[in-house]
Amino acid sequence: MRIEYPHRHERFGAVRIHELTQVIEIDSGLGGAAEQAVIGGRRVHHVPATAINGIERRMAVVVPTKNERRKVIEGVLSGIPHDCTIVLVSASAREPIDRYGLETALLDDLASATGRTAVAVHQFDPGVAAAAAAGGLIDLAPDGAIAPGKGEAMVLAMAITETLGLDHVGFVDADNYIPGAVHEYTKSYAAGLHLATSAFAMVRISWQSKPKVTDGRLVFNRWGRTSQVTNHFLNLVLSTYTGFGTEVIKTGNSGEHAMSMELARRLRFAGGYAVEPFEFVEMFEQFGGAFASPHPEVNRSLIDVFQVETRNPHFHEDKGENHVSGMRTQALHALFHSKVCPDSVRAEICEFLEGEGAVQPGCEPRAETIYNGIVGLDSERFGRYLTKADTFRAFNR
Ligand code: GDD
Q1: Scanning 125, 145, 168, 385, which has its CA 20 to 30 A from the CA of 208?
Q2: Is any ligand 1 atom within 6 A of the Cβ of residue 293?
Q3: Domain covering 2-395 in this structure, CATH number
């Protein structure tokens, strides 16, 4: 992959957020070493296919899924590079049709035809919750059950990734209609993780466009409203601390993202759809320098956050305005309750939420659930219990 090299960034303590960069060539060939060059006035970095493959071999690609169409999931799975380990975490209905059974049959077919490695679990399997509790993830499985939610599925998937001994974890939604987009996202994860100069690294995708049919024409919209709102408030927090206005954050809600396990095992995660924006909030809170960090080794190093604009359009299931406004509200709730959020930003969040009718005047936003992540995971015990869970499936492992 040939990728534009970011030449500007913002710093918040140890967190280095690079400005948005573009994919120049999705495939830049096998040859040569990873190298920078100025081409047509742009600083670009060639990451050879061999380097990308080196990351893919050590990366889990997580597919959280909840009642998505079988054909669409099949396309998503086909877009994940062969050497990545697929981790499917399903919250799909099991009655009257066992959708999880259909999903694992898809994985079975793919794994048998290709020899690739995959693991699947069902989020609501009591055996999986028991494994989480046995592995020390007490808050993920209170009362013997894992709650519904995308963030919850992601924490579970990170525990599986850790147990498999992999070094990186990436996420792709199961409702993406374009397998080529999934492929480009995962290649971009690998390129970004390869370019990171720190063991603590994250790559967040900003798709170039989201096509919609309007009045019979295909229109390629640039930013969704949820992203605009979330990015605005995250940038506001950043500029309140640095004293300089910024718009560097373009990927506050990025569902498509990846990180090194060195970073993942030091972060807390929010439940539901607050999960992605909260990753920024958590990095600011723990590693911004305003508060003492439980992981001072990160503060002595840095976290490289790359934001990459990909080429494929992002074409996914449209779940309606209520769904979108719910995601927006969850993101703002999580920011509001963080100790890193200045009072001035809290007041603006309240004004916005009141304007949306999402809170009553007087504004007491709900606190989203925050999980301890996989800090303190006993992966040996987790793995031992997980393999006994009814819904646990492993292919070619
Ligand atoms: N296992 C599991 N459990 N999967 C879930 C759950 C759950 O409770 N809820 C949703 N999913 C799966 C969906 O099936 C889909 O594959 C993926 O998670 C994303 O959920 P959607 O409900 O389709 O989200 P979206 O498309 O509206 O929003 C996506 O993009 C946003 C950025 O634009 C998500 O990735 C958001 O998290 C992201 O902020």
Answers
A1: 168
A2: no
A3: 3.90.550.10
